[in-house]
Write a structure and sequence with these properties.
By secondary structure, the chain is an alpha/beta fold. The chain has 20 helices and 33 strands. The strands form 6 sheets. Strands 22, 23, 24, 25, 26, 27, 30, 31, 32 and 33 form a 10-stranded mixed β-sheet that branches. The protein is elongated. About 45% of the residues are buried.
Length: about 675
Amino acid sequence: MTDPEPGHGGTDHGVIEVNPKTDLFDMTSLAPRLVGGTLDHTRTLSRGAAVVEPATAAPPPPSATRGDEQIAPLVSVIVPTRHEAENLPVLFERLGRVEIGSPMEVLVVDDSDDDTPQQAARAAARLRRPDYRIRIAHRSPEDREGGLSGAVAAGMAATSAPWICVMDGDLQHPPELVAALVAAAIEGDRDLVVASRYCEGGSSQGLQHRYRRATSRAATAVAHVGLPPSLRQLSDPMSGFFVVRRDAIDLDRLQPRGFKILLEILGRHPHLRVGEVPFEFGARHAGHSKASAGQALHLVRQAAELHRAAAPPTHRYDIHGIVGVESDRRLPELTKFAVDRLGDGPRITVRVGSLRGLPKGENIDLTGDVPAVSYVERAGFGMRVKIQGTNVEVDVTPSVARSPHVLYTNVVEPLLRWLLVSLDHALVHAACIADGEHAYLVTARTDTGKTTTMLKVLDRAPLSFMSDDLVVVRRDGTVLTYPKPLTISAHTVHALRSTDLNRRERIALVPQSRLHSREGRQFAFLLTRYRLPVASISAMIQRLVPPPKYHVERLVLGVASGQRARIRGMFVIQRGGLGGEPVAHDEALEILLANCADAFGFPPYDSLERLVLSVSPDDLRTKERWIIAEALGGVPTELMRSETLDWAERIVDRILLGSNGSVDPPMEILQEIV
């Protein structure tokens, strides 16, 4: 056998490839690396974040050859180790006697600070079997995020074998059981089979003291809390010995840390088909146990987090049967769409949990089966989005969830915009009022007080409320209500004749209005140029001082609400100047599109947009423009200029007096207007 080259000592980072035929080994980089406890296959698209390429090392070498044909291993046995030099020679020898009828490889992922990898390499090179190969990957101290679980996850990412077996290197897991686990998984059509100490026929006598056995039982009870209900029948979710089908798990979902990777896999994959095989937990061959009080605390935290992740979202919203939203946190902007259950259609699912380990900044991965983007700021804002067809999974940090307005406005609404376009609808930035079956859009070129104008219209005429800020539009001109609560100011309330806001709410409007004004929004946009954590700052501010949002029924008592109508006209209000004039169709379209663009753009909007537009089979920008253009076809648009801000009176006049194509109003309405 050839010794390692100088400089390739026990603290170097790499994979030692042991070839039983030649007694040689070489070192190549272990890829993909582990970033902050989470496997990262992403390529960063923005400045300032680390770039980690997909696996750059050569794929795992073949375990056997048939003539010139290379045969890949059926099973990769992953063994996470730390200071197990005395145990590994025995483990290799016993695994070498296991017969599974197909090639097998062993991948040792070592976090030792001694000469374990060198001793392991020497022991492996003494073995002679054509369908059995050993690889040893040593992780340097800076790459040991995630502990034992991180080592297992890194090993999973570095192998392409269809089946993965995970076991400890201390011989408390009998290597001879690997064949039985693999057979139970394949023959029983299971995604994962656990070697259990606690099912019938199993034993935990290898835990030498009664105290340790009691502690293990208690830990198992804690672990069950973190499991989805469908998997709580497993008797030993704390086992470190199991076989799993490689394609059944999504490595990107794992947040490996501590020493119980099986619990993490089960908690993140509630639909796994699982089974158990009993085994007798043996005594440690050599060395010392790595269990500690700190790991016990990790377990409690992990179980609690997985429990939250496994619980079904409690808030559900149905946007006109087009798309559903389900969320761990209530989304006040979608209150009017709340339902008890959703159908099987497209949906956005929002879950709250830890995103520890995700790299800071924007990271987009378009290489995997499930395209994903993450955006993380150091000050607490963090989100990750994955797209599978028309279903979108959103994970956000607790910091985001504590500000539901930021969660909706900065994350959910941008996703809704493009998901609706993909489903042949457009989310148009305009207010909308209806006169029976006729809808009228109200938008603005400048900061004109659109909300106040629309409320004054409703306060003075028997028209129906459809939306204040956004409305769903079909290409045939149908508009569907989008009744979010309205963001108002003290000036807005003074202009209305009947509201039910109490004194405390009216007083609070003064600071709320100033903080959440258009000027405040523009200032926040300015901060983005200086790469400040503006999303985190916004979440913190809006948690401390919530924006002044009220549903229309509280602002205009007795107002009617419309559900759908057909666009009959559009008004563009503008501060300054006098009179009005018709607006050409192309110009009206550009105004609406510009306002739609202006409504978005706050971080992490750019990240979300890049992901959605990249994975869609359609050109969504072009499609959105086409939907809106078709909806506005033949619709008259009027530009209303004013120095006195009298747009409400003029809009009522145009609609009710028929100047814009409406029917003549009743006499009592004419008298009220006069």
